[in-house]
Amino acid sequence: MKRGAKRYVEYDYEAAYQQHLEQMHEWMIAMMAKSRKKVIYALKEITAGDQLEIEIYPQFTKMDDVPEKGRKKNNNKAQRNLNDKNARKYVERLINANFDDQDIWITLTYDESHVPEDGDIDGAIKNVQNFLRRINRKRKKKGLPNAKYVYVTEYNEDSAIRFHHHIVMDGMLSMDEVESLWKYGSRNEVRRLQKDENGLSGLANYIVKEKRRIKSEKRWNSSKGNLRKPGVKVVLSKKEKATSKSYKKIGSYVDRIVRDQNEIREILKGWYSEYDFTNAEVKHNDFNYMFYIHARMRKRRRKDE
């Protein structure tokens, strides 16, 4: 950080702004106009494969200025919920950054003679790790590198959900070869991934959906050293188009979007000409009359793809 630069507090901006713009009254727009000079808006760009997420949110130097629901609290449950949400978002982006339609989605289950005892998360993890070691031994014999994968183990001792494992893996081995290496049950699913306009976000959100974890249980696991990390960049100003000469503060674009949501497409098109617009939402609150904007775009495919 440069000497003299402001230090902004970290907060949960998604939780801080939850009211949809359609619910906003005219007087609130007037209040927003009065407040906009008091705040700096930041723009966060998250790139993951062909997916681009844009988050626009206010920055604050004091936690007291943050809406109550977005403040970091000395509360174990609140912090745990925030950590879980951030972990799920990261896994979604990690999957989009590393896998495509050539890769596979695996659900591994247990038969009665192999199902781990209730609560034995360590035993279940050991089983899936043994499976992955067999995968890598098979690949080595074929002259292939170690597998790229992300996996989540699901279990709920208070319901009928038995231990099972969801794995997203590169598709260098055939689906039949992969399934044959699981030794603990036969009612498994192995299928080819299929992206939509949101990439693999739907699948990722399904396998990392919010769940009660056993104490010390990791939210997710992945291969080491061979996964690309999602790209993250935060800026406070942006050129309206690549050919523009000057930068404008992000807050000036927020003003335009709030007055006319149809402006979102045009603004994003000017910023990211290689991407097509997917969707966007604008939310606010009545604590400080400020806004949170989230948008998704997909990189435009070449005609030869």
Mean model confidence by pLDDT:
86
- What's the number of extended β-strand segments? 13
Total of helices: 8
- Strand percentage lies at 15-25%
Main sheet: strand order: 1-12-13-3-2-9
Q: Low-confidence parts, pLDDT < 50 over ≥5 residues? A: none
Helix-strand category = alpha+beta
DSSP helix fraction: 25-40%
Shape: globular
Radius of gyration, whole Å = 23 Å
Distance between the termini: 42 Å
Provide the succession of SSEs.
HEHEEHEHEEHEHEEEEHHEE
Main sheet attributes: strand count, strand direction, barrel closure: 6 strands, antiparallel
Task: Summarize the structure in words.
30% of the residues lie in helices and 24% in strands. The chain is built from 8 helices and 13 strands. Strands 1-12-13-3-2-9 form a 6-stranded antiparallel beta sheet. A hairpin with a 6-residue loop joins strand 12 (275-284) and strand 13 (291-299). It is globular, with a radius of gyration of 23 Å.
Write the layout of secondary structure elements.
Blueprint: H1 13-16, E1 19-20, H2 26-35, E2 40-48, E3 51-59, H3 76-98, E4 104-108, H4 121-141, E5 149-154, E6 164-169, H5 175-180, E7 189-192, H6 201-207, E8 221-222, E9 231-235, E10 237-239, E11 247-249, H7 250-259, H8 263-271, E12 275-284, E13 291-299
Antiparallel strand pairs: 1-12, 2-3, 2-9, 3-13, 4-6, 4-7, 5-6, 5-8, 10-11, 12-13
Helix pairs in contact: 3-6
Which labels suit this protein?
5-stranded antiparallel beta sheet, 305 residues, 8 helices, alpha+beta
Short description:
With 305 residues, this protein is of the alpha+beta class. Helix content is 30%, strand content 24%. It is built from eight helices and 13 strands.
